[in-house]
């Protein structure tokens, strides 16, 4: 799919989009229950090669783990983690089309811009599930469902 705004790369193997908060919890020792759940989710998706993240998520991840968690990672360690994610995960690019779609998400659905960009990236890359604690759990917006992996009854097997 291409337009004057840019192109969107579709990833047939990617089935689940992971939001920044899930990745950050994997490194946040101040939230041990969420840390363990995040590690389980990331490992499950990585082993099956069905997870996707975006350039936006990696950017937010680097800032959050070096500045916003109680025991931040060093810039060097965070840099290594970003390199590992780039090498082993499907990483979706930010395009002009995603930006305009995110703006539509803000206008039509009153999403925050950053949440709208997550939604737009998933939608335009034909990924129907977003794992995040930032959206209304169980809601679906134009074919994209939002699932909170930290809910007590969450099971990855039930969403794939």
UniProtKB/TrEMBL annotation:
Quote any Pfam family the record assigns: PIN
Query: What region holds the PIN domain?
Result: 16-134
Source superkingdom: Bacteria
Q: What is its EC number?
A: 3.1.-.-
Q: In the UniProt record, does the keyword Hydrolase occur?
A: yes
The UniProt entry, under InterPro entries, shows: PIN-like_dom_sf (IPR029060), PIN_dom (IPR002716), PINc/VapC_TA (IPR052106)
Q: Does the keyword Nuclease apply?
A: yes
Which SUPFAM superfamilies does the record match to this protein? PIN domain-like (SSF88723)
Which key words are in the record? Answer: Endonuclease, Hydrolase, Nuclease
One MF term from GO for this chain? Answer: endonuclease activity
Give the protein name, as stated in the record.
tRNA(fMet)-specific endonuclease VapC
Q: Source species, please?
A: Neomoorella thermoacetica (Clostridium thermoaceticum)
Gene behind the chain: vapC_3
């Amino acid at each position: 799919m291409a337009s004057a705004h840019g192109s969107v790369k579709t990833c047939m193997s990617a089935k689940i989009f992971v939001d920044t908060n899930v990745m950050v919890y994997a490194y946040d020792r101040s939230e041990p229950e969420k840390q363990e759940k995040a590690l389980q989710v990331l490992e499950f998706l990585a082993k099956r090669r069905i997870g996707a993240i975006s350039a936006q998520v990696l950017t937010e991840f680097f800032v959050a783990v070096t500045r916003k968690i109680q025991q931040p990672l060093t810039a060097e360690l965070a840099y290594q983690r970003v390199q590992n994610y780039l090498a082993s995960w499907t990483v979706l690019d930010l395009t002009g089309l995603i930006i305009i779609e995110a703006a539509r998400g803000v206008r039509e659905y009153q999403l925050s811009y950053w949440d709208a960009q997550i939604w737009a990236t998933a939608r335009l890359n034909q990924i129907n599930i977003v794992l995040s604690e930032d959206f209304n759990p169980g809601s679906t917006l134009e074919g994209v469902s939002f699932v909170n992996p930290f809910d007590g009854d969450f099971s990855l097997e039930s969403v794939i």
